[in-house]
Specification:
GO terms for molecular function: nicotinate-nucleotide-dimethylbenzimidazole phosphoribosyltransferase activity. Catalyzes the synthesis of alpha-ribazole-5'-phosphate from nicotinate mononucleotide (NAMN) and 5,6-dimethylbenzimidazole (DMB). Keywords: Cobalamin biosynthesis, Glycosyltransferase, Transferase. Pfam families: DBI_PRT (PF02277). Belongs to the CobT family. The protein folds into 2 domains: 74 residues, Nicotinate-nucleotide-dimethylbenzimidazole phosphoribosyltransferase (CobT), small domain (5,6-Dimethylbenzimidazole Phosphoribosyltransferase, Chain: A, domain 1, Orthogonal Bundle), CATH 1.10.1610; 274 residues, 3-Layer(aba) Sandwich (Rossmann fold), CATH 3.40.50. It is built from 16 helices and 6 strands. Strands 3-2-1-4-5-6 form a 6-stranded parallel beta sheet, sandwiched between helices. The chain is of the alpha/beta class. Helix 1 packs across helix 2 and helix 6 crosses helix 11. Helix content is 54%, strand content 9%. The longest helix has 22 residues. Strand 5, helix 12 and strand 6 form a beta-alpha-beta unit. Bound molecules: nicotinate mononucleotide and 5,6-dimethylbenzimidazole (DMD). Nicotinate mononucleotide binds next to strand 4, helix 7 and helix 12. The site of 5,6-dimethylbenzimidazole (DMD) has 8 residues, from helix 3.
């Protein structure tokens, strides 16, 4: 949406909020969230009744370089856990009354036929995981494009099905290394400042991870330059590309998206470097405990909804933030105004008194 149109909608929404029975601004961030939802939907009665969480899963060649505390097989095992309903995101999605789509964009394992038959599973495997970007590009340009398309497709489907709010999360052992490489390359920050323990590396492991990223950036710098899509292809991940696709397509279709933690934020950063105005439709669900998430959120000028010291991924932070978005939408739609409730608006009264006093003096 044009910048001026969006900021005009924000103003109209804030005006409506200012007429509600509360001191101006007293609902704090909840008001900011409500106004953003209203502006995205172009309605002063935002509706996010139907919500969906999208979990993109993929394997990472870089996981073979000793950059994660867990073995690569966990990626496929967790996909099965998602399909059996036992993971944290299953619990939080049920609790938040949203449905959950699990999209395999590149998991390096043969999933059973019964798993693939689950109605919320989407087999969109581009390739069996990325290559190790310490040695070669993570993806070909075609693979990267196909993964972006898997993201577009989910947004189109959600749009057709009248889903009003999307969350994006991921599963992929090794993907904090891919995300950190992207942040380092595209925000121009030294890998040592960006790397963290991920699933739980010790100090030596974190130092090794930074070194791996430094070497990889040196290898891919010449080909990638300052091009976000080229970096995505060279050091990113299939699920990161798919989440980038979600944000770009959701911007085109004006659908709000709640971004999860460190890895989902790297996808948001790539999308925003491609299309800065896509920030209009992004909510940053939480600040993850992965060390540099604070720094990158600041660099993106993104104000996260929550900080619960979580660092799980899978969309868990986004799912929890959706409760507050629900609350924000309800404030916008259901709360009485000073006029309808017959409550005196002290600021207005004070202004009126000031005006009549100055008129008397004239
Ligand atoms: O979302 C986060 O902030 C986050 C922070 C650390 C780890 N994770 C999850 O852990 C996995 C990646 O960690 P790692 O150590 O294997 O790179 C991946 O499946 C993510 O969902 C997620
Ligand atoms: C068990 C486990 C669950 C996860 N969920 C998201 N990333 C994960 C990483 C591990 C290791």
């Amino acid at each position: 949406m044009q910048k001026e149109v969006f900021s005009d909608l924000l103003k109209q929404a804030q005006h409506k909020l200012d007429r509600k029975t509360k001191p101006v601004g007293s609902l704090g961030k909840l008001e900011t969230l409500a106004a953003q939802l209203a502006a995205i939907q172009g309605s002063l009665e935002p509706n996010i009744d139907k919500k969906r969480m999208l979990i993109f899963a993929a394997s990472h060649g870089i996981a073979a370089e000793g950059v994660s505390a867990y073995p690569p097989e966990v990626t496929g095992q967790m996909v099965l856990n998602f399909l059996n309903g036992g993971a944290a995101i299953n619990v939080l999605s049920r609790h938040g009354k949203m449905n959950l789509h699990v999209i395999d964009v590149g998991v390096d394992v043969d999933l059973s036929d019964s798993a693939k038959e689950a109605s919320n599973f989407f087999s969109r495997r581009v390739t069996n995981g990325t290559k190790s970007f310490l040695r070669e590009p993570a993806m070909t340009a075609e693979e990267c494009e196909a993964a972006l398309k898997a993201g577009y497709e989910q947004v189109q489907l959600a749009h057709e099905q009248q889903v009003r709010l999307l969350g994006i999360g991921e599963m992929g052992i090794g993907n904090t290394t891919a995300a950190a490489a992207l942040f380092s390359a595209l925000l121009n920050i030294h890998p040592e400042e960006i790397v963290g323990p991920g699933t739980g590396l010790n100090e030596a492991g974190v130092r090794h991870k930074a070194l791996v990223i430094q070497k990889a950036l040196d290898l891919h710098r010449e080909k990638s330059g300052a091009d976000p899509v080229a970096w995505l292809q060279h050091v990113g991940g299939l699920e990161i590309a798919a989440m980038t696709g979600v944000i770009l397509e959701a911007y085109r279709l004006q659908m709000p998206v709640v971004v999860d933690g460190f890895i989902a934020t790297s996808a948001a950063m790539v999308a925003l470097q491609i299309e800065p105005a896509a920030k209009q439709i992004c909510f940053f669900g939480h600040r993850s405990n992965e060390k540099a998430h604070r720094l990158v959120l600041e660099k993106l000028d993104a104000n996260p909804v929550l900080d619960l010291e979580m660092r799980l991924g899978e969309g868990t932070g986004a799912a929890l933030a959706m409760h507050l978005l629900d609350a924000a939408a309800k404030i916008m739609c259901e709360m009485a105004t000073f006029d309808t409730a017959g409550v005196s608006d002290s600021e207005q009264d004070a202004n009126k008194q000031a005006r009549s006093a100055s008129e008397k003096n004239d």
